[in-house]
Design a protein that fits this description.
134 residues; mainly beta; 8-stranded mixed beta sheet; 10% helix; 43% strand; globular
C-alpha cells in the first residue's frame, strides 16, 4: 500500500490518541507472537507513563508521518534488573495493548544505547512514532 500523506497523518494521530494517559513498558524475555498474545515469563523492567495528551500533533517529513511522545516524567527508575528485548504500549486502563515494539541497539523498532537495565540508574526515553507515507 502506498499511503497518502493526509491518510498517514490521520492514522498516526488516531494511533497516538490511544496512548493518552497510557504506558509503555520495557520487558525482558521472548516477545509474544502478537500484541494480543498474553505475556509469559516476561519481567517488566521499566515503565513510562504518557501525559494525558501522549503525543504531539503529527507532521510529515522524509516520507514519514511522525509524532513525538510526551511523558509524565522525563526519567524513571526501573522496577527490575534485566535485558530489555521488547516494549508493549498500553491504553490508560493498563490492560488494552496498543502494540508491541522490538527494542535493541540497532535494527529494531526502538533504538536504545544499551539493552541492560539496572535499578540503580534512572532511564530516559525519547520516542517518536513513524508511519511511512508517499
Amino acid at each position: 500500500m502506498n499511503l497518502a500523506q493526509v491518510s498517514g497523518d490521520a492514522a498516526i494521530n488516531a494511533l497516538c490518541a490511544l496512548a493518552n494517559s497510557g504506558t509503555i513498558v520495557f520487558y525482558s524475555g521472548t516477545q509474544p507472537a502478537t500484541p494480543e498474545t498474553a505475556l509469559s515469563g516476561n519481567t517488566a523492567l521499566v515503565t513510562w507513563t504518557f501525559n494525558s495528551t501522549a503525543f504531539g500533533s503529527a507532521s510529515v517529513s522524509g516520507g514519514y508521518a511522525q509524532a513525538s511522545a510526551s511523558f509524565v516524567a522525563s526519567s524513571v527508575t526501573p522496577a527490575a534488573n534485566g535485558t530489555v528485548t521488547f516494549a508493549r504500549m498500553y491504553e490508560s486502563n493498563g490492560t488494552t495493548v496498543i502494540g508491541d515494539f522490538t527494542v535493541g541497539t540497532s535494527g529494531t523498532d526502538i533504538l536504545i544505547g544499551t539493552t541492560t537495565i539496572s535499578t540503580t540508574i534512572s532511564v530516559s526515553l525519547s520516542l517518536t512514532l513513524q508511519l511511512a507515507v508517499s
